[in-house]
Specification:
Blueprint (H helix, E strand, L loop, with lengths): L17 H15 L6 H18 L6 E3 L3 H11 L7 E4 L9 H4 L7 E4 L10 H5 L6 E7 L11 H10 L3 E5 L16 E5 L10 E5 L14 H5 L6 E3 L6 E3 L1
Parallel strand pairs: 2-3, 2-4, 4-5, 5-6
Antiparallel strand pairs: 1-7, 6-7, 8-9
Amino acid sequence: MTESGIFLAHAAVAPISGPAQAAMDAWTAEAAAGRQEGDEVWGRVRKTREVAGRFLGCDWDEVSLLGPTALGLGLVALGLNWKPGDEVIFDPLDYPANVYPWMDLVRRGVRPVALERSPEEEIRWATIAAKITARTKLVSLATAHYLTGLRPELSVIGPELRARKILLCLDGIQTLGVLPTDWAEADFLAADAHKWMLGPAILFRQTLSSFVTKCLCQSLGFVERRESGFSGSAKDGDGGGRKKI
């Protein structure tokens, strides 16, 4: 509900909530006073990551605050250590942000493999299994289709992919904050807050892979060096620890 009416189109771009507006106003006041990157600001960044981690059921250092969902998906596509002949499975009927990054990998010798389904057909394990080969490295799906609302059976797909050591990347923008989702099944999750979370386009990116041990850094600057874990991390299934990605 806004001052001028009731807003129902949260699946598009929702109004920013009152608390979010107040927090942003407070930050701009600090920035105008010359304290744009003070310790208090970085403390808020840490606190935000902690809150996001509790919401997603993961550690705070497995969460990155980036920008639009497309940025998170693009970082995964660009950052993974692909080898010529590797394959990535994607849904060609998905929103373009979860299609173009994978199609573009052909320039690096990666083979994009499109799922075959009708718009009315749900994505089930059998849909994906038909496309898996020995070279499949990653599968990217949406937690709910942006037009139909259909949801893949992640509770089945996730464990099946993990058993085969295939990575799972999820675009969670359509369900984050409104529908329970099997977040833990994903190695990578990209979903910003401008829909059901009533916030700006700030992104929560969860990395919970048991098999990822290296993701090539796509941004190396002051921010990434300042706070350990800011760019995310991955659990190492061999040693039980966590390595930077």
